[in-house]
Write a structure and sequence with these properties.
Helix content is about 35%, strand content about 15%. Strand 8, helix 7 and strand 9 form a beta-alpha-beta unit. The strands form four sheets. A four-stranded parallel sheet has the order 2-1-3-4. It has a three-stranded parallel sheet with strand order 5-8-9. Strands 10-11-12 form a three-stranded parallel sheet. Helix 11 crosses helix 14 and helix 14 packs across helix 15. It has about 350 residues and is α/β, with parallel strands linked by helices. It is globular.
């Protein structure tokens, strides 16, 4: 019996199934082995081989791995961009989409809504390309120098699933990106990219194709640094020639600094996005909760990542709506007393007034 452990799942949960484990499962099934998704770290010596995978570095592994000779580990959570790739025959194996079924059924039997597991149940998942040439300092993926083809959509497509989820790092960095879109169109299924798309690479052809594609959910780009202000604005204006839909942008914080300048950078980016009928999705770099801006990052995250709120309320209105005795107002007042000019300049800006 082969045991498979999704470490992220066991330490707080995760939105998506672990693709590497699903490929490992089918690979070993094809060799005549039985596989099992393990939901704890007990009785591990009873298995011929254990594979533990994790995506996130903060995920806790509550055992001493050195005590087990039958355990192999993998994933960016263990090795960052130095993680060993799967063997070719495993990497290009059709995923075992049944791997999580017992876990999901047990959760549903215990009161969870089926929609909570839509990413596990409704999506075919895979990479059509791998890599990104940007090598951003904050990104875990720096091992590649270019975007290269990885697999055909058909390699991971389950025709019984409604949608397709693509994990590509930077699809628009691939010079044959249009061929990928042709493949996706030929499936007649709606699709989405998990990673933020690189709007800096947008062209007329890409904007037209993406705006007319069978995309599901929000189209999400990235605006990680105010240094990219000019090109981001230029590309949003290009996008607006083809689509008037509200789009989202990942807006990174706590990386370039974790002081008042980072808060100013965030709100300057918010102002630009609001002006072009775009909304932010605030993301925080590791260690954001260790500095003086911790409370502000919490407040901004709660405000900016609720579309129905950020489109209606200014940051100040959102904080005040939580009540004078709330931690939200505590964090706001602490910042406002120390940086009144910044608060006066930014905390009243509103999406509907800048659009």
């Amino acid at each position: 019996m082969i045991g498979l452990i999704d470490a992220d799942l066991l330490d707080g949960g995760t939105r998506h199934p672990n693709l590497a484990l699903m490929k490992l499962s089918n690979y070993y099934k094809c060799l005549g082995k039985q596989t099992q998704l393990l939901l704890d770290y007990t009785n591990l010596n009873n298995y011929e081989q254990i594979f533990i995978s994790k995506v996130f570095t903060k995920t806790n592994i509550p055992i001493n791995l050195d005590k087990f000779s039958n355990i192999s580990i993998g994933g960016t959570g263990f090795f960052l961009d130095k993680a060993e790739p799967l063997l070719y025959d495993i990497e290009h194996k059709f995923p075992d989409y049944t791997l999580y079924n017992n876990y999901i059924n047990n959760k549903i039997d215990n009161g969870f809504k089926k929609v909570f597991f839509k990413d596990y149940l409704d999506y075919s998942i895979g990479f059509t390309t791998r890599g990104c040439f940007r090598k951003c300092d904050f990104c875990v993926n720096k091992r590649y120098d270019k975007v290269a083809p990885h697999s055909k959509v058909s390699e991971f497509l389950d025709n019984n699933r409604k949608y397709i989820l693509l994990l590509d790092d930077n699809i628009f960095g691939y010079y044959k990106w249009h061929e990928i879109f042709d493949e996706l169109d030929n499936t007649n299924k709606r699709f989405q990219f998990e990673q933020g798309l690189d709007i800096r690479l947008l062209t007329e052809d890409k904007a037209k194709r993406l705006s007319n594609s069978n995309y599901i959910g929000d189209i999400i780009f990235a605006f990680d640094s105010l240094k990219d202000k000019d090109i981001i604005e230029d590309k949003i204006r290009l996008w607006r020639r083809f689509s008037d839909k509200i789009i989202k942008f990942y807006t990174l914080s706590a990386f370039e600094s974790q002081d008042v300048n980072d808060i100013i950078s965030l709100f300057e980016r918010f102002k630009i996005l609001f002006r072009y009928k775009c909304i932010p999705y605030h993301t925080r770099f590791n260690g954001w909760d260790n500095g003086e801006m911790r409370g502000m990052y919490i407040n901004i995250n709660r405000w900016a990542n609720q579309p129905n709120i950020v489109k209606k309320m200014s940051f100040l209105e959102f904080c005040e709506a939580n009540g004078n005795n709330s931690s939200t107002m505590k964090y706001l007042n602490e910042f406002r007393s120390k940086y009144p000019k910044v608060a006066n300049k930014y905390f009243n800006i509103k999406f509907k007034e800048l659009v």
